[in-house]
């Protein structure tokens, strides 16, 4: 059994997998590869192709909340010649160790993207590395393309956790991608090697789904002017046909993460991380919450267009923002906001397991110590409306702010405050006038 | 006539009003005050009170898009003893010189507030100063409270534009606020001095409206847990009863500001800044777009709760974000995002006329040179959905990003890119393993 | 005895002094004031003046490393009518709890000032508050001027630690400063009230000294063009006449703070914080290290000119910078650098005891966990030269960087790295060319 | 003749070289390469090796201020078979277009490195590209190693200026570096191909020199503990033996760049950019100013140790910092400081010709509009001491800051200023006390 040092939680300590240093000699068998297997056409072909290249292939499939027939996938992988198949449910750790830190950070890439795919990759990669270590495999393979972010996220995660691992990325290897320049060649290869070919025609775009979100890109979506087809969406209802009555939720936070969700319409309550997150997915999905259509900047330097659905994440983004503003000091918030911007960029770029991301996660978690309380939200027709909030730790002081009560506040102090703040502006005006006068002469 | 040096537009040059240096000797009459008059009970009482104190009062009322009977206000001010009344329509300059820079910046205070009130204050203050200069008045008075942001915004603007001006803020003067501890005393004073008293009962909250937004705060809203009453909103329809059919708009940008709006459902088109902004207000208002309920941090150091409606501003925020992401280089965007955060804070705090805000406005405008193109949005049930975008200046390269075309892109390069990025992470792992191993011994 | 909750050290927890909430009822005697007494003319006059106003005065004098006849000061205060005199040696806590966090941060205000005075103020203020609490005093008084930073630093510290304290700042009270418009009036007052008047003529500038530094400002230094007189300096020798032979030191760090200093020329070694800091002061002073002449921006909005000597602090700044660069990951360092900039500004402005400064101190301390090792420096003729460094935790990898060894490094990877980084630049060129071509047409 | 669009100066417009788009068809001859030739052993061997590979080689050597026998280098290149040799003096443009923007920015990488090499690379690369375009060459080759920063700086510059250029980097090509694993093999190859071999033994470190600085690294310096030999330095005297009398200089700035230098000891004055820079090099070199020994983080992710001499740059860094602080508003300075940090990082990493660097250069230049005046410095024994400064645009107000004059300043305002700033801290204390009290129960 593999020893994992350090805790996974809240960035206190980075995962250190022993015996992974670059120079370490590793155990046989030396030609085993753990393949991040999805059950789809691409990774099925890769599985067979890797065997052709002489590798022993162990298929690994994470259940991270995607819709998938895991049993069928297991059978398929074995049928294609996988030595072993590992299917592991990582949903709980995905929520607790990856989504929660993102909620604490209000993580948002380029002002819009809630990082659904980016958060899933390091969660999967960690498991890939653990399986590789257990099995003494020196190689990890994945089916991510050569132009995207996911290749980076997978590989940086693997290398950071275990520098001696070698990653095989067939879509970047000429011997692979020249052999399979298009989908037709893949299909032919599949038919030739007994790989089951999907019976339904492929959607004219690609998708990637997990518990937090689903992304749609490529194909007809590559033209950024093209409107997404109405039937594209799978995780949220069309707001045009969503219920005409809102759901109202009370979301309770402790240390910046949700610990309880109650639907005030029917009293339904959830407390565990995974359950409450899934429940929020249900409610948000039902009301069409969490759709965006954006152009974003990939780490490799190109702009791409993506359409995303992030139902629960969208509710939590709004609710956390609110409870944080309510309980956190203004200046701490400003500093934390800067850290979160950086954190979001790092997560997007695949640096989850980096010293800087670990550092940021620690600092952000620190900022959340008193982020506690309850936010009431209404979920309706694609929107999340904050209705009110309360907290035992709030820095909001109703008496102080009241227009009807003077309280300890001395209005005359504001005069001095303004005058001193004006000092610098007056000096600047003085100088500008001088310059301006001179120019007029 | 007053000479105003420098252009107002796009931050190229700050407004310099000559003859305003602190030490300058000013013309008589020395006891004239220009009052920022709203027509309401408070500033009416202040008008009379200022006269009681021996000042000659000139009432100034900006038409900045609020619903108001300006003619009645004029008559009222004159009846109360104002020497003169100036009512000036500043709507166009508000849009072009204040809202547009905020659109360019994607200005957002504390991740949520679009700065509707904060942007209006320097627009009004500039006019106040110009009137004071024209009239040879040494004083400016306003009715803002002593706990709020608006006093700061008004006064910093006035002092920055004309350091020799003296501001009278009655709500911070003990002789005033001790005389009028509550609304009852104001009413009594009004009745005694023939000041018309509103016949309708005052709403249990306070409001401030302009072309861009309306704010609701104080009163029953001071308890942050209390839900806003459904009948509070005045600028947007309730999404529950808003139309069941979306409007779709094409918004064209040049240099980061909208230059044309077309409703694709009916072909209605607007091109001038003011008209297109008002049209967006109509459309957004009709569909319930732009409501928020937040707790924010005031510059004076307290948290307050505010409810805002910003219809057109919300559409433009989303549309500009999209066209900017489409046309701006990733790294420029990141730098500009940091500048915008600072810009938003400065605007909120009242530093519109400051060297730093002028500097930021210039830099942000520079970043917008190629932010041009058209965004198509759907406005529906409280939401703005981006549907697509196109631009002659886009950095989006459909061929480069395509999954089906290799283009100039060499997938093998990504391997090197990842490996070099992994170098630092591997080194860190090496060190951590060493430390960890040592600790195990 | 006063209960102090929380540790002082390393920002882990902010000092909370119980029973200080604004609304708390406090014990009699209600008219006792604790005066931050310096023994000089100003605070002696203030002492007598406060008694005139009816206060019971307790004099507090911190020994924070300044040159002072503390015994004489005690006698003087008692002779002038102080009820009690407290003289407390705070040198050790000044080094360990205030200077050390600044060393960890490489704290530097406006790229040059090592914050010597700014760090001392919260150290003194904390003691003032503790004495006030012990003595049941409701007031604290100080002799800082109304234009400077120190008034802000003292008072924000006092209010943050004990909101119910009232601060008396005579130099901001018209009844005081109008009575004493100049030094002559102070002298007259002194003579009248038996306050000993300094026999030596006052230097034509003011000074403030502590263990870390001495500042010179005002008087003839107010003209920023005037060169500082050669005989002004008191903590460092003139580099023109300093020894012609350098001293070489080995400075060992743990967690970002120095834990051992060895003079390799003579083997002298110091390990305790206070002793090693004082020794560094000796060595740096002997070699003329640590003089600067700057114009800085005060928090109240004006520029001022100051001349500072910070001998030990200057050595530690250079040494810490070096060991940090040697042991800290590049990206962590960049984030930490931003935090330190903010930290320095906060310390300068007097916000030591603020939620944001506490947060930053925590984050910065976290970044220092592996900042350990030894730096060798030469101290000579006003300069500190880093000669070399070593560390058990270094991220420096001699084999990796070597030009003579390839190691694990694959040069071809750099090609991919460069090409991918170039992608964005090429896209930008493509667009610029298009625009440029169009403009030519 | 090649048309170059846009100005080179002050970042107003990026250099656009037409006809360089990636997809453009280029003129024959297709196998010509422009080699960045240094005259040394490495690039001489590369020249011959490129010819072996079938390329027509044009040698390009920039005179960027290094000590070099350019005539001998020309002859040598021709003798080795170069088709043509271009030797171009770029000193003036190096100072005006690359060093000056760095002076404006106070550019400093990782708090210490003045970027001497990093600034030279884009200056040279631009010329390389221009020659390649003129000559119709499709290739550029350089002799930079595969582990360093210079390869990145050269190539990103080339690709940004002319995307269709192909770069040949022999030290990253296995067929080259495996053939020449060490210096011995290079020597053998040289002897075999009639390449003149240096008669003096190579220094046990590598050097790179230009007008701004010289760097020493590798060889015996790779051990970061090793002290640099005393005889290593070539651009500055040993402070131990430098003159015992300082030089005093008056440096006049306009728009943030030096426009005049006067030695007040002898009246020597220089006004042109190049001449005054060279004169500052002389003076600084004579007094041993500008030596540093650092460990830095390379862009490729490894730490390296470098020793640098930057004589004139060090004087200008201190002088510019001073005049900037004197003339620039505090808050503008803070924003500009953040931009400069980013600028320095970009320059170090090789992104001179990037949209973000162009943007930053523009913003920084904008901040320098009023950075004008004269700084007096003393240069002595390795140190630069600022003695005083004056400026027609200073925001320093001697009357305002004076301790002896109250001026327009109202001390009572500071009370309000402090109290309002304390508000937030008191609120925080209130909450902490509550929490703390609870925990005690």
UniProtKB/TrEMBL annotation, chains A, B, C, D:
<dbReference type="InterPro" id="IPR023434">
    <property type="entry name" value="Arginosuc_synth_type_1_subfam"/>
</dbReference>
<dbReference type="InterPro" id="IPR024074">
    <property type="entry name" value="AS_cat/multimer_dom_body"/>
</dbReference>
<keyword id="KW-0436">Ligase</keyword>
<dbReference type="InterPro" id="IPR048268">
    <property type="entry name" value="Arginosuc_syn_C"/>
</dbReference>
<dbReference type="InterPro" id="IPR018223">
    <property type="entry name" value="Arginosuc_synth_CS"/>
</dbReference>
<dbReference type="GO" id="GO:0006526">
    <property type="term" value="P:L-arginine biosynthetic process"/>
</dbReference>
<dbReference type="GO" id="GO:0005829">
    <property type="term" value="C:cytosol"/>
</dbReference>
<dbReference type="InterPro" id="IPR014729">
    <property type="entry name" value="Rossmann-like_a/b/a_fold"/>
</dbReference>
<protein>
    <recommendedName>
        <fullName>Argininosuccinate synthase</fullName>
        <ecNumber>6.3.4.5</ecNumber>
    </recommendedName>
</protein>
<dbReference type="Pfam" id="PF20979">
    <property type="entry name" value="Arginosuc_syn_C"/>
</dbReference>
<dbReference type="GO" id="GO:0005524">
    <property type="term" value="F:ATP binding"/>
</dbReference>
<keyword id="KW-0055">Arginine biosynthesis</keyword>
<comment type="pathway">
    <text>Amino-acid biosynthesis; L-arginine biosynthesis; L-arginine from L-ornithine and carbamoyl phosphate: step 2/3.</text>
</comment>
<keyword id="KW-0028">Amino-acid biosynthesis</keyword>
<keyword id="KW-0597">Phosphoprotein</keyword>
<dbReference type="Pfam" id="PF00764">
    <property type="entry name" value="Arginosuc_synth"/>
</dbReference>
<dbReference type="GO" id="GO:0004055">
    <property type="term" value="F:argininosuccinate synthase activity"/>
</dbReference>
<comment type="pathway">
    <text>Nitrogen metabolism; urea cycle; (N(omega)-L-arginino)succinate from L-aspartate and L-citrulline: step 1/1.</text>
</comment>
<dbReference type="GO" id="GO:0000053">
    <property type="term" value="P:argininosuccinate metabolic process"/>
</dbReference>
<keyword id="KW-0547">Nucleotide-binding</keyword>
<keyword id="KW-0963">Cytoplasm</keyword>
<dbReference type="InterPro" id="IPR001518">
    <property type="entry name" value="Arginosuc_synth"/>
</dbReference>
<keyword id="KW-0835">Urea cycle</keyword>
<feature type="domain" description="Arginosuccinate synthase-like N-terminal">
    <location>
        <begin position="33"/>
        <end position="196"/>
    </location>
</feature>
<keyword id="KW-0067">ATP-binding</keyword>
<dbReference type="InterPro" id="IPR048267">
    <property type="entry name" value="Arginosuc_syn_N"/>
</dbReference>
<feature type="domain" description="Arginosuccinate synthase C-terminal">
    <location>
        <begin position="205"/>
        <end position="428"/>
    </location>
</feature>
<dbReference type="GO" id="GO:0000050">
    <property type="term" value="P:urea cycle"/>
</dbReference>
